[in-house]
Amino acid sequence: MKVFCPKEAVPETRFSADPESVKKLTGLGLQVTIESGSGLASDHDDAAYEKAGASITTDRAKALAEADIVLRVNTPEIEEVAGMKRGSLHVSFLNPFARKDMLKAFADAGVNAVSMEMMPRTTLAQKMDAISSQANLAGYYSVIVGAERLNRILPMMMTPAGTISPARVFVIGVGVAGLQAIVTAKRLGARVEAFDTRPVVEEQVRSLGAKFIKIDLGETGQTDQGYAKELTPEQLELQRKGMAKVCAQSDIVITTAKLFGRPAPKIVTKDMVDGMKRGSLVVDLAAETGGNVEGTVCDQEVTTENGVLLIGTAKLEACLPGHATQVYSSNVTNFVEHFWDKETGTFAYKLDDEILTGCLMTHDGSIRDERFQD
Fold it and tell me: Which is catalytic among the residues 126, 204, 222, 249?
């Protein structure tokens, strides 16, 4: 069977394969084809892929038409779907709640499409969880970006000229990205505080050496997948009031609250930003879905009238294409390997498997999940 990894559209820097994943796929007996120049942003040239056992092509349409498995990072151009082989498998981020048209195109073309966003958050699927692997990198890099833009250092420093106090970092949302942001800020010597609507994460925050900010919001919790539940308008207002004082004292605020399939909740209001000190900054990891902060502009840096910098870079993980490609390609390769039948040399569609139940969006010409059938 043939695997094709097409080049991602600019400005995407990540790729769906690195040389190590190519070795793993060819070890299963698959023939891997890479579109020429695809790995350059992650510092893998065509020769590195050929050395790992892949073929290189410049004929994208022919490779798509012949491939039994297509591995990507992002959704394809919808016009390309009709040119794919009927019965083939497509694996990538699909943004299914916003791209029902794409799911219909896959179903009409008879392509079996897997959404990496819909991968279950279970122990078994952990090695395939691309959302978490990318969020780890985004959380790390949010602190690096904040430290680089801040006009002061993060750690406390004793000098003959006097003592420099540690910078204060406030992390809002203690999921995968938030936890990594906390760890990174602590390593750099900052004083770190964190808040999450799920009281269950307090112990994790404290174990990392950060202070957990407690705000009484009434009944909250998390979904079966481990995400924070959406708050009511009243709870959001209580949360904002409780966080305003912490934001005002902070040098760096990092917001990580995303709601899959819905716009990001507005957590930090204009009034809260207005109350922050000149020279402080906010790194908004939810900028791509509307932002957690009033005033955030996706893929821009905005300085407010009171001198607060709002950083809205989308997909911060894509700023680290070397490691982002490494972990993503590992995720998709682990997925293929998990369902690979070595005896028949085919991908086994075990439709009652909890992993496929969650992430297989289309199969045999139909959309499987009722939520996307409209």
Answer: 126
Phi, psi dihedral angles at 222 (to 5 degrees): -140, 160
| pLDDT beyond 90 at 272 | yes
Q: Is the pLDDT of residue 44 over 80?
A: yes
* Domains, the chain, with CATH or none: 2-118+320-366 (3.40.50.720), 136-319 (3.40.50.720)
Query: So what's the pLDDT on residue 223?
Result: 52
d(CA 351, CA 218): 40
Give CA–CA dist 260/155, Å, rounded: 35
Active site residue 126: yes
Is 134 in the active site? no
Q: How far apart are CA 134 and CA 318, in angstroms?
A: 9
Catalytic residue among 42, 132, 133, 235: 132
Q: Whole-model pTM?
A: 0.92
User: Tell me: the pLDDT tens digits for 107-146?
Assistant: 999 999 999 999 998 999 999 999 999 999 999 999 999 9
Catalytic residue among 227, 249, 349, 369: 227
Active-site residue flag, 250: no
Please report where in the chains the tokens 């680089």 appear, as a residue.
148
Which of 18, 49, 72, 129 is an active site residue? 129
Q: What percent of the chain stands above pLDDT 70?
A: 96
Q: Which of 31, 60, 121, 349 is catalytic?
A: 121
